[in-house]
Batch of 4 targets.
Target 1
Amino acid sequence: MAVVFEKPKSLTDATLHYCPGCTHGIIHRLVAEAIDELGIQGRTIGVAPVGCSVMAYDYFDVDFVQAPHGRAPAVATGVKRADPENNIVFTYQGDGDLAAIGTAETVHAAARRENITVIFVNNAIYGMTGGQMAPTTLPGQVTQTSPYGRDVETVGYPVKVCELLSQVDGAAYLERVAVNSPANIKKAKKAIKKAFQNQIEGKGFSLIEVVSTCPTNWGMTPVKALEWLEENMLPYYPLGVYKDIYAEEEAK
């Protein structure tokens, strides 16, 4: 019988703790497949902050470092600089972590063009702590701390990370992808693999923003959450490449 799928070697056999329908599992698989295909499992070191991804070290069969809330890019910087020729370092962060308490670390790591890979999961809500409004929560979106919908007049507008970092000279590669359909999952895999390949080639700071769902805290079924993402998140967070300095140079 033909084998149509095998679990990536860079994933452990641990059972995921994520809620039913959560797309973290898909993203984990894509990251692990990229690591396997590039042959860098023995060199890879992940950095997990606080959030739903806090237990990522249980799921990836690579070395891992636990970082304080929001500080993953700073920790990743230290790990990479300790052995820049051999260490392949990635962070795996949610929007509450990266775009709130960790905004400064993210921006300045990009500004320094640190040769690291950042996987940024944007599900527009605080997942681990119970569904509070996040920096990426959409205008009008209902959360535990915005029961009448996010009011931009009082709490401001969502942070668009790829658009923000595209103005930082040191950022080398920024792409926003989604995991709500087979076609988008394939594109996400390609982007994640490219971000790791950039690091191998010493091209500098790469960030892949993955637009994702949180059925539990959105109060939806997994299927409905995927539909809501398509209808609401993608218009506000358009998919695509926001910066690729090497592709731009080649096009000149």
Target 2
Amino acid sequence: MQNSPDSYRSNVSKNSVQRMLAIARIMGFFATGFSLTMVFPILVSYWYGDAQAEHFIRAMLYSFSLGITLLLAGWRCCYSLSVRDGFLVVALFWIGISFLAALPFVLGAHLSYTDAIFEAISGFTTTGATVITNLESLPRSILFYRQQLQWFGGMGMIVLAVAVLPLLGIGGMQLYRAEAPGPMKEDKLTPRLTRTAQLLWLIYIGITVVNAFAYWLAGMQPFDAIAHSLSTVSTGGFSTHDSSLGYFDSPLIEMIAMVFMLLGAINFSVHFLVWRNRSLLYYFYDIEVRVFLLITVFTVVIIGIVLNTSGEYSSLPYSIKDASFEVISVITSTGYGTVDFSHWPDFLPVLLILISFIGGCGGSTAGGMKVMRVLVLIQIAWREVKRLIHPRAVFSVRVGGRTLEPRIIDAVWGFLTIYVTTFVILMLLMMHSGLDQVSAFSAIATSMNNLGPGLGEVATTFATVSDDGKIIASIAMLLGRLEVFTLLVLLTPAFWKP
């Protein structure tokens, strides 16, 4: 016997309520967990006596109260998340936490709501663009908080949360797939997702600790060493000084930064293999890492030669030194600076912005389209060339000895189409907000690729950009961090159908 229409609608309505309660429960868990991270800047404030602890405590209480309310609302709910629900939770998480993260900037740094939200989103998405000038005048706790936001955003707090979500009785694979960067989201280090998340964070923490220790040995003060390690491994790029790493004027510090920026931009599953097998050779076994390093070296050589022949630098070693730092900083989407590359001669500034579109490896903290997608696109293009020569032949798309499924190829094509379309629309909107063509292009490029520095008006800061432009850039940063689809899928009518 078939259910009546009224019965069907009743079941749909009941499921919708259960679904919302389950999502509220998860969001409550995230908000409560995020509020506890305020403990660190509170401790820094007390340590340095900068009188900001009260502001962080207030922000902590706001977030904790909201989290507990949402947790209690959905506590008795027993609803299993679908893949579709995972996209919604991830989108709500990144938007919601960004708004909560803006509170200390409003209370402590006295930024406007628009500026505070921009700064929070830039930090949490590891973009590194800023609206703040004269960083040295900020309290130490605010400076540390900015760095901390990037560190948590680098690996993605959801990847941390899926290690705990099973305790709530809610599976985490849907969240992992929606949040994890890269075209092959199903790949896991271990059969159990919880164990995968734990290993990722152990590796992430380990690399960060080693980085901080290396900075300290190279001459940084402990505060700067810890702060910069948080934004180096996360490829975020925030600094405690206006002149970024150029403030330290130390080739050794720059060399350490380059090593750890590269580590942050390499797939963390490769780090796991290196650690488990105690062999650095696994970095060279992986096709994506090899191509990533080759692109980096090739670009460094080109830029170094042009800088030297143009007369910008008196010797090739000095030009290669600065070229190496800026190329690694840009392609890993970190955004640190020792020089202002927007004033470099010839085509160099545009070339640097263009390589930010490539970005780092999938499964890393870097932004951009990811090297694996670029590899797949090159292989698809080469397949079409071969088809012109041999029309009746059947060619597969292979990357690193692995034949790709049509589903992955379609996903890469779809991503490129949506990425380019979204980029063009946002760039036009940015021009409408008042920026010139070059500034608008680089503003969206640096935002969607989670880079930070751009060209023209946004070469060093977004402080002079209008509020409308900052909102557009904030949307671009979220789209880039979640690789476009996670947010855009929410705009389709089919997503909301029962």
Target 3
Amino acid sequence: MINLKAHGFLISFVVALMGCVQGFFALLSLYLFNDNVAPDFKIGAEIYLAIAIALFLNCRHFNQKRLSYRDAFLFAVFTWTSLGLMGSLPIVRITHVSFTDGVFESISALTTTGATVLSGLDSMPKTFLMYRQFLQWMGGLGVVIFVVAVLPMLNVGGMVLLKAETPGPMKDEKLAPRISKTAHILWVVYLVITLLCILCYYLAGMNLYEAVAHSLTTVSTGGFSTHDASLGYFDSSAIYWVANIFMVLGAVNFALHFRVASRRDLTLYLRDEETRWFLIIILVMSAAIAWLLLHNNHYDHHLNALNESLFIVISFITSTGYGAFGMAEWPSMALVMLVIAGYMGGCAGSTAGGNKIIRLVLAVKVVMMEFKQLLHPRSVLLTKYHQQPVEGGVLSATMAYFAIVGVCSAIMVVLLMLTDLDFWSSLTAVAACVNVLGPAFGELGNNFQPVTDFGIWVLNVGMIMGRLEYLTLLVLLVPGFWKR
């Protein structure tokens, strides 16, 4: 049976979180920016805090049994869905978009996708723009991890929630004996990297408002900007390089950041197999795209081509999605490579989307092992990661995951094409959303306004599915899930 009171108790903290966030931005508008949008945030804060208090009072007395995987999956899915709906209220009120578009913008922010239906950002209220940025930062490390961090009682079943939320195929690693302590450590690492990013952006030439706003979406690998031109607005090599460094840091396993800091040993980054391959792929793809750009006469100078391709490759493979340099005019092969980079994604246990490099590494090793098995039928071969044998269940789950990604992407592309969107636009829109990446090409090169309401809801599901890595959401559709 589903523990309804336990779910109500947990959700009360999620609803209260959104109420507090919108209340904070109401105060920010009233006392700092004075941009007349305080009432648009105040109404949401009042409604959500009232709902949170009612839920808490009615559900606080419940049987604190160990949370099952079914409870964890339901909580994770409901958390992201409810936050997306709640976060849309000020977006609809301030920008006057439809409810459908408002929910899309909110889910895109919280899942760190960065796809948008808005234009004219440069003239919008500062409070509203910072709100969009903050939603990405809040969703970057995961709201469920936040709940685990603030509720010590979840040490009873917190690991189940942490596994349902944390991306990647190998989720049993703890940084501390207590789950809430592990969540605290992850959030401290996240906050420290964000503060360093603010400082670096400020030193690179941004004002304090822009530095804070863009650090929130760089470390979270979200990609929202306060300008329609994204980071291209600043036209600064120093700012691009700050973005490069912190996008990569956001896309590397946060547990690895903690180990590096605690041991004070930077070589741990290169000794980590996933991170090492992640950096190698970035360099190889950047060099290949730079060659394509030079070969097609898009740039005359080798260094310019390499710098700009490096920035865009990092932006796509980390699923950040910052734009610049007029990518729409790049050769088709370069754009295809960027879509592939988006599907590859960053490292497990990071804020990045995509399929994660660890899965790619394991899949390649499985294929190579099969070839070796054909050549030596009687040999006993093991797939190793970090010199340790990988369980067969992990390998099977990895290959099944790629199959699920392919099937789900194909279905969503077909659904979008039924709305009269062309194949290239549909493919890149789905790739942008399931990989929580953001930018698309074709008809959607500027924003997602051309997508119909039906298509927007398809992409909403795609963003939540991609953020929860498919299975957490898809398992709810299996009849046996509800019978156990």
Target 4
Amino acid sequence: MDRVHIKKLEIFANHGIMPEENTLGQKFIVSVDLYKDLRQAGRTDTLDTTVDYANAAALIKQVSEKSVFNLIEKLAEEIALALLKKFSVEKVNVIVEKPWAPVKLPLETVSVEIERGWHTAYLSLGSNIEDREGHLKAGIDALKESDEIKVTAVSKFIETEPYGNVDQDKFLNGCVEIKTLMTPEELLRYINIVEENEGRVRTIHWGPRTLDMDILFYDDEVVYTDNLKIPHIDMQNRLFVLEPLCEIAPYVIHPVLGKSVMKMKEKLSRKNLY
């Protein structure tokens, strides 16, 4: 992807473990790459189609000077997040150099380098208690409240029969597409809090719930831990997931099965006819 470079921006700030570093301050050197498709900027020659590097440099300076951090790792993280939230870029690479690091040995500089960016994830939502539509909309609103999540597509809600435990009311189901700065584990923790805030109680497996949110896809990553399975381990067998997901992401490929959402939906629909 195209990139805008800001190299060797010098900043005087107060970061470090040693007390004198926090009080006297020292020089830091910051370099960033901002990843963005610059074709339109090259065609139109207009500033709003690229990254205003003057504003980006000013933001880096502001972030660096407004707080005191022990670690340059923390400084790099805060710079990356600030740039991603303010500018329309897909990812950033940040290098923070500390040329006056107190290591008592001759060196040119100490530095850290990180890369952070927006990730595409798909979530399923379901509810079969009380105001089902209200719970789903509250869940979507809670996603929008996070400055590390952008809701980019929402499917229609469909009414479906309960899955697994059939002795309960019908569900209302939907799917959303999001862009997020969170890792899969951070996203899972966030949606679990959203569920709890809507009164979710985990007592019966596949039982009634006010709000159920699952991570279906996260980029094309495969995650398999005790607490998290991505892609969702049973989504290919759930028409109530595939139908709304197909509305907003028909051509997304399952990274394990190698089939698109549309193909999985068509296969399961044919199976349910017999």
